[in-house]
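Check this.
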Amino acid sequence: MKAKRVISASSSRFAAQLFNILTVTALTISLTALLLGKLLASHKIGFLPFVLSLPPLMIWLGASIFVYASIAHHPNPRTTHFNKWAGYRFYGVMGSLMVFGPAIYGLLDGWMGLMLVLGLAVTIIVPWALFDIYKAAREPWADMTIEVVIYE
């Protein structure tokens, strides 16, 4: 049996923006935790900024796979387009930092090296992500009707 379902324009727009919104949030929380850890850390617990800043980023790195995959097969091609480029940006920068991050981190010892690596990721990803969120909001979205096969 086939049934018709309506995907609202606002749902398509939100799905197009979701990966970017969560990426900006995770990077902002991670950078804030790094700065807060640096303010709170003494010389005896110098690893605190590192410990505070990485969990939000690592959790988002794992969760982003599920968010990306859930949006990748959206019926609206514009939604999948925004999602695809958000994924390219995030995974490309994070993969590049896995290669170049240790060398950058090695240039400066301690938290300053971590600040440089994380700051580089934020500098590259966040402006583009915010621009994509804005661009998706300005896009003319329309409701979609799709047919769904229902198995009984």
Observations:
- The longest strand covers residues 2-7.
